[in-house]
Amino acid sequence: MKYLLIxxxxxxxxCSVKNYEITQTKVIIIKTKKLKFADLGYVRNxxxxxxxxxxxxxxxxEKISINHLICTSDGCMTKSNFNKEYLHxxxxxxxxxNILLADAIYGGKSREQTESGFEQKIxxxxxxxxxxxxxxxTFFKDRKNKIIFKIKDTK
Length: 155
Known about the structure:
Strand order of the largest sheet: 6-5-4-3-2-1-11-10-9-8-7
Helix content: 10-25%
């Protein structure tokens, strides 16, 4: 019985309440096969977890929490299962958190420094990605899979 309680606690701790160190208000545009959104949102993070909360007309419509699992209103899943269901199965497991934190994707492959950040172009049989990060904006577009993320600072 004691072990069952420990396993239960570990399984559900992935979606537990966190105290986030950084909270940023952003204009967020997302277009994937399962999620379409264009409005304000919050990106919150600590050293080991990230939360994306999406709002429409001041009402929270979706919360995506990322640590060792990714939790949505549909439940928690592994990062690779999230990619398969929401993005594209060939993406690296860390791609969503890298985009939200404006970090390099695909281990920095094809990264070129720009005046205000960096750019990556990744093309193979599964993807055709342009990824740009600047001080004001993060832009991710996969032309082959019709996926767009645009995250812009509010001014």
